[in-house]
Fold:
Amino acid sequence: RVWDVASGDEVLCLRGHTSTVWSASFSSDDQLIATGSSDNTVRLWSAQTGNELRTLKGHTSSVFSACFSPDNTRLASAS
Structure:
């Protein structure tokens, strides 16, 4: 979920992972959100609409961290 800090209101609910989400991070331009999960995937979302844009597969265990490069052209993930 994405929350408005000032009001405490939920802004977006990101639905798609099939297990616990361990990591969520915004791109530096606030356009994307990356999430990592116990379903062994990283998912990319639109930070404006909450739509899932891409599922990145390849991990063989839970993904505990996902981080954008400073220019937002790469994403590092760790399991």
Summary: The chain has a mean pLDDT of 97. The longest strand covers residues 21-26. Residues 3 and 10 are 4 Å apart (CA to CA).
